[in-house]
Design a protein that fits this description.
Helix content: 10-25%
Strand content: 25-35%
Distance between the termini: 22 Å
Oligomer: single chain
Order of helices and strands: EHEEEEEHEEHEEHEHE
Length: about 250
């Protein structure tokens, strides 16, 4: 069944509020201001949310669309933007075949449209920027990790941060234009000339964990991707000596 979603009714949220469970329970109007194509199947949607209470890199939100007949659809989405992007939020969504909400965003949504958001939600996967972080993601699993990278840059943090991101091809590498020296891309189907092709392996993970220049205490590892990828990456981390209690996993699918 295909639903035609309409803009939600705007309501006022008083002032700027602190991050709290109470704030996360309030639905707020988010106005779409920009759409940026990332890959053939993924795009970033930027929203103005003036009363957003703030978030930590790695957290997610609940998004709600309303159809003209009163039908609503809700989805959890990781936040891609850094907390420093005050009054705005960015979500990067894959166009899922048959996806009710992602289909609306990719084929119907336009600047000026309004949705409702609630959050931030879950602090387990959050990185406050106070400890060395090794980030490992595949496909759209890089979205919450990019919030961490952007936060690291916005604050000019000295604490080490490394990102391993896996994609099938360079064309499918989300945020390709933004990556810098902190990022190592891994391509599983095809790669630029001179770049090996293959699955994420111990050869990618172990050297980062063995970095002699890291501060005492080692790394906090964050893994995000499909169930299969999360299991694979976590196994590589453990085999490389990463303590199990310092591996945080967010998975989908």
């Amino acid at each position: 069944m295909t639903e035609t979603f309409a803009p939600v009714t705007r309501f006022a949220v008083p002032g700027r509020i602190a991050v709290s469970n109470r704030a996360a329970a309030v639905w707020q109007t988010a106005t779409l201001t920009e759409i940026r194509r990332e890959t053939p199947h993924a795009a970033t949607f930027r929203f103005a949310v003036p009363a957003w209470a703030g978030h930590l890199p790695g957290q997610h939100l609940m998004l709600r669309l309303a159809a003209a007949d009163g039908y609503t659809a809700q989805r959890h989405y990781s936040i891609a933007s850094a907390p420093e992007d005050d009054g705005h939020l960015e979500l990067t969504l894959d166009h899922v075949a048959g996806g009710e909400v992602s289909g609306w965003f990719h084929t119907v949504a336009a600047p000026g449209d309004e949705v409702e958001v609630r959050g931030p939600l879950s602090g387990f996967f959050a990185w406050p920027g106070d400890r060395p972080a090794l980030l490992i993601g595949a496909g759209s699993g890089v979205v919450p990790l990019m919030s961490m990278v952007r936060h690291h840059r916005a604050r000019g943090l000295d604490v080490p941060l490394r990102l391993l991101v896996s994609a099938r091809t360079p064309k499918e590498l989300i945020y390709a234009r933004e990556y810098g020296a902190e990022t190592t891309p891994v391509f599983t189907r095809s790669a630029p000339a001179g770049t090996p092709v293959g699955r994420l392996s111990a050869a990618h993970v172990a050297p980062l964990l063995a970095d002699a220049g890291r501060p005492a205490g080692g790394w906090e590892a964050y893994v995000c991707g499909s169930n299969a990828f999360a299991e694979h990456a976590s196994r590589l981390l453990v085999e490389a000596g990463q303590p199990v209690d310092r591996i945080r996993i967010e998975r989908f699918g």
